[in-house]
Structures are given as C-alpha cells and as structure tokens.
Amino acid sequence: MRLGSDNDAIRRRIGVVFQESLLDPLLTVRENLQTRGRFYGLSGSELEQAVDHALQIVEAEEFAKQPYGTLSGGQRRRTDIARALIHAPKILFLDEPTTGLDPKTKENVWQTIENLQKKSGMTVFMTTHYMEEAAKADYIVLIRKGKIAAKGTPYDLQDRYSSDRMRLKAKNPEPIVRFLEEKQIPYTIHNGVFNIPLQDTLLAIPMITQWQEDLESFEVIHGSMEDVFLNIMGGEWERA
C-alpha cells in the first residue's frame, strides 16, 4: 500500500486515540461507538457485533449505556480506545493516553492496553512523556528536537545511557571516605547520605562487606528510564 493511492485501505488498518477526545458527551458510550462504526461502513448486525467486541476488549460493558460526558477519566479513556478499535485495525496509535490521569486511573488504562495486546496481538505505537510508561514498551525511540536521539529496547537503553548507584548512610563515615578517595571512586554526600555510581551492581557487594560495621543503612538503585531520558536530552552521553 502507498500513501496517496491507498489512503482508504490504510485508514482501515490503523486506529488512533488522540490526546483530546472526539466523542459526543451527550451520547451514550454505545451510541458513540455505533456512530463511529457507521463511518467505516458498518451497519446492522455487523455493526452491533463490532460494538460489542470493542466494549468487551476494553471491559466497558458495565457503563455502555451511560452518556460519555458523565464518565470518569479512566472510563473515558477506555471508551476512546474502544472507538479506535471499532473497525478492527491492525495497528493502534495512542497519543499520550494517560496525560492528566491520577495514578490509579493510569494503571487501569495501562492494564487495558496490555490486555488488548495479549488478546489481539495488535501492534501499538504510543507517545508519552512518562518514562515509567516507556519502560513497559518492547522498543523505544527517543526524539530530541525532531530527530531520533536514541532507540532500542528498555534494557539496551538503560545499559547504555544509565548506571546503577548505591546510596548509604554511615554511622562512621571516615573509613568510607578514605576508601573511596584511595580507590578514586567518585561519590557525593548530601545530608549525610553517600551516593556512589556503580559500573556494575555486583561491585556493591565487597564495599558493603568491608563497611558493614560502619553502615547504618544502604540501598542499590538500578538505572532507570528517567536516567536515560535526562542523560540523552542533557547530552551527557555520546550517541552513536
């Protein structure tokens, strides 16, 4: 298929969930889906089956008779996704689907997306500014000033653009400071808490063993997608 000559066929193969809803607040969820289905040429029993299937996928049957304008944020998002699925597309595009939602509602929306992938095997493209959401993806592309800054699996990006670190609070900081400076290991101290970058998480084991009598507490923190984002967008890491 080619853009320009096969536009109708392409539209039938993709579904889009926009950041702002396109649905009528006065119509019920079912009525909104019926209206959208007719845009794709569906009618009669075929239309009703498509509506029922979309409602089932996003688990929206219980509020299908409610006006869209009376729904909660999470229910609206699930309905928006159902609207994009009404014509059974092969690919789904989601434009920041959880923006403005509370943590619990975000989790519900994500569960809907994950269930959709498991049940239908659909390919999902999603834009987001939330790195904890990006970490759930199979593959990530980071855009900087309109160009691809980095791409790869979450594991690959974290391995390349972030590092683990150890945070510890000491009962007796002097031997720890002496060891770190002798070994030329970089560190910072803030409010009595050491922050030590680690090239490998396992490097924390001999340090903790040596300092166990001097430690009050410690934790090893794995590099995150937040670190990846900040390092790439801040230009602190060399990009291939």
Automatic annotation (TrEMBL):
Residues 1-170 form the ABC transporter domain. SUPFAM superfamilies: P-loop containing nucleoside triphosphate hydrolases. It holds the Pfam family ABC_tran. GO terms for molecular function: ATP binding; ATP hydrolysis activity. InterPro entries: ABC_transporter-like_ATP-bd, ABC_transporter_ATP-binding, P-loop_NTPase. Its EC number is 3.6.3.-. The keyword Transport applies. The keyword Hydrolase applies. It is an enzyme of class 3 (hydrolase). Keywords: ATP-binding, Hydrolase, Nucleotide-binding, Transport. Belongs to the ABC transporter superfamily. This is Daunorubicin/doxorubicin resistance ATP-binding protein DrrA. It comes from bioreactor metagenome. The gene is drrA_29.
